[in-house]
Amino acid sequence: MNKVLLINYKAYKESFTKGVEIAKAAAEVSNGTGVDVIVAPPSTVLNQIKGIVKTIAQGVDEVDPGAFTAHITWFELKYNGIAGTLLNHSEKRYSFSKGGEIDYDRLKQAIDKCKLAGLETYVCVENLEEAKKIAAMEPTAVAYEPPELIGGNVSVTSAHPDIVKEFSNLIRENSDSLPLIGAGVKKAEDAKKSIELGAEGVLVASGIVLANDFKAEIYNLASAMVN
């Protein structure tokens, strides 16, 4: 099983101005290290990037094709050759209200529709309770990201190593999903520590997308997981 480095472009300006170049660097590093480097760019550049490296959407709605203005459906991802989708990121939660509890029924619908279409699903969680419930839905991967550390300079592997280890064990014990670690993961030692604590990969964003030498950062993180 290959380790996973998932790069969330978010909606930074660099996602559009440098997105293709980041994807090319990701492909080169993936081929050189054997790590599955996956990118999740904004929807308007998905088609520019999909042929360069494994590409997923930043989100999808639980609806089928039809009268759903501004929604993203599993069908358009499948039709356009996108490999899958990120789901339930803290900035785009499947919740009843902003900052509220997850609407697990809607989230499961989205996961199930994607799985039936052969699309991969990478689902973010904020705590172990969410992780256990979502692991039972058998997505491709579950990514642990405490919201207070997202975008910061303190890695979850340093702040909560015991929880990272417990999370990784919980996912393995309750599903065939891959446990991934995010939030504050920017340095090679963060990625290496994630693997040592039982994860199968990491989810990163600003540490790569906003970096001057993004290729070096991708390589550092990927190589740390296999060396």
Topology at a glance:
Blueprint (H helix, E strand, L loop, with lengths): L3 E5 L4 H5 L1 H15 L2 E5 L5 H4 L6 E2 L16 H6 L4 E4 L16 H13 L3 E6 L2 H8 L5 E4 L11 H4 L1 H14 L3 E4 L6 H9 L4 E4 L1 H4 L4 H13 L1
Parallel strand pairs: 1-2, 1-8, 3-4, 4-5, 5-6, 6-7, 7-8
Protein model, in words:
The chain is of the alpha/beta class and 227 residues long. It has one domain: TIM Barrel. It is 42% helix and 15% strand. The protein has eleven helices and eight strands. The chain has an eight-stranded parallel sheet. Strand 4, helix 5 and strand 5 form a beta-alpha-beta unit. The model has no long low-confidence stretch (mean pLDDT 93).
Please report the first level of CATH classification, the CATH class.
Alpha Beta
Main sheet characteristics:
8 strands, parallel
Distance between the termini: 15 Å
Strands, count:
8
Q: Approximately how much helix is present in the residues? A: 40-55%
Supply the helix-strand structural class.
Answer: alpha/beta
Biggest sheet, spatial arrangement of strands: 2-1-8-7-6-5-4-3
The fraction of residues in strands falls at 5-15%
Number of helices: 11
CATH fold name = TIM Barrel
The succession of helices and strands, N to C, reads: EHHEHEHEHEHEHHEHEHH
- Poorly predicted runs are none
